[in-house]
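It is worth pausing here to work through a concrete case rather than discussing structure prediction in the abstract. The textbook approach is simple: state the sequence, then state the predicted structure, then interpret. We follow exactly that order.
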Amino acid sequence: MTENTQDASLAIVILAAGQGTRMRSSLPKVLHRIGGRPLVGHVLDTARDLAPAHILVVVRHERDQVAEAVTGIADEVVVVDQDEIPGTGRAVEVALAAVPGFSGDVLVLSGDCPLVDAATLTDFVAEHRASGAPATLMTAVVEDPTGYGRIIRDTDGTVARIVEQKDATAVEAAVLEINAGMYVFQAAALGRELARVGTDNAQGEKYLTDIVGLLRAAGAPVAASVARDVTVTFGVNDRAQLAEVGRLLNARTVRRWQLAGASIQDPATTWIDVTAELAPDVTVLPNTHILRATVIAAGAVIGPDTTLEDCEVGEGATVRRADATLAVIGAGATVGPFAYLRPGTDLAAGGKIGTFVETKNSTIGAGSKVPHLSYIGDTTIGRGVNLGAGAITANYDDLAKHRTEIGDEVHSGSHNVFVAPVRIGDGAKTGAGAVIRKDVPAGALALSVAPQRNVEGWVENHRPGTAAADAAARARSAQEADDGQEEG
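Step two, the predicted structure:
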């Protein structure tokens, strides 16, 4: 949130009471997510940037779920319950009642319009105050206004009325300026006129837009402010619009980081949540998702084909073709390709998690390597360790998880299984194929070798007529011939 001086004469009302039936979802519309935040979360972030005296969020459908999400983002917000009287006018009326005596300006926003930004709203409020009008509407000029309320202006430029699509004449329907659904009102005029708004309409709702007609009938002007960027007015009513608004938000986020010094090779296939942070000189390669609270330090190279969720990546680290969640990747470390870092992975500086390696709840020390084909879970690995291919920490005994501890400068052979709980001392070595069930002292060599037994002729005797038996017979005959020549 931008640190601004509080505007004591501004209150912001966010409408989040609707069901959003066109989403066809059990989840309230305003809680559907884009860019790492629910829709209403983006609106809240912007509202807080304006530093108003009050932020009020009006809820009704799935009240508790929406209220919990809202207060989890901004605990200073006042949650206001809309009663059984439906409509945007009633929503604003109950919000205004929650701040008795407030005499400033009331900015009304929709919880499903996540692209509106602080600069646009700051200008909007400033234009409203400069006009002296009791109400100002935000409008937009669009190529296709179908379905939107048209803004009909008087000759002096003020708003005469809002005409809905179904009520518009041919001339009115041709107007390209539409109502964007955001408003600023003088609080006194707003309260007075809301008391006069009724529910005598087809839907039986108390409409906020009815105030325009009431103010004009009383001889008061209604101003309009045209949004310079029409995309800031885009709302979400269905899944198709959710995807489109998400794409626009992501493009805005990617561009912001590019201008801040990050190299993003293919913006079209890169997704970055608004909650993530990238330092200058980070390089992001195609098909990469940087999600939630991920933080990436300078000089790191991420991607291609990588997903980081709630991760911390150190300076100069390289992460490619990997999936990581709640993991820490140290400076200069390398991850991937085809690595899976589960929560609790902590890879220290200069370490390596390589190809087809899965890690979980494990600390891997500075300069240590788990290069390939391994599972490392509930493990502490010291400095300078190298685990051979196929290392597995057997951490679960069907009842509980146990830890494996591997000291500094340990080198293990290929295809080792460490049966936890077990400790490998500093500088120890293990042989290929070892199953380590007991602690290994520092500097010791651990082996678990069974004598190899060869049963001669087994394939020919037990798999007669197979290609393997035929090959074995040919090899045996050739060997017998060679042996005969040597004897001769």
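Step three, interpretation. The mean pLDDT is 95. DSSP finds ten helices and 38 strands in the chain.
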